[in-house]
Design a protein that fits this description.
By secondary structure, the chain is mostly helical. The chain contains 4 helices and no strands. Helices cover 65% and strands 0% of the residues. Helix 2 packs across helix 3.
Length: 57
């Protein structure tokens, strides 16, 4: 679940792709957020901001 969410897809889009309900996606992502100690809001901000270049250039 975290992969598509990190790619910037909405919960609704993820649910449609994997054939689950939006509520199921929200439930699983909340568990991911809890384990990573981030809020859903923080996760959304990270989705919108560009990833740092792994080469450091």
């Amino acid at each position: 679940m975290a992969g598509p969410a990190h790619a910037g897809l909405s919960n609704k889009e993820i649910a449609k792709r994997v054939g689950l309900t939006t509520r199921t996606i929200e439930f699983h992502l909340s568990g991911v957020h809890r384990k990573l100690h981030v809020s859903g809001e923080e996760s959304c901000r990270r989705r919108r901001s560009p990833s740092p270049d792994p080469d450091g250039s």
